Amino acid sequence: YPVIPPKVEYSLSDEGRELQDLIMDLSLWGKKWLEKRGMKTAADEDLDTLKAVFTKQSH
Description:
Strand content: under 5%
Oligomer: single chain
Distance between the termini: 50 Å
Number of helices: 3
Largest sheet: none
Structural class: mainly alpha
Helix content: 55-70%
């Protein structure tokens, strides 16, 4: 778009959309892999708890 500040819109191509199911399957596989090991995804982690753990480790 010819505006200031510049504006751009992105979208997936048809080829990119073909990968959607594969990427979702990989994501679900990874989540199950973590759950089997008692781990969480970064999105599921409590950031305050993580910060506290890493702060203790660095001292």
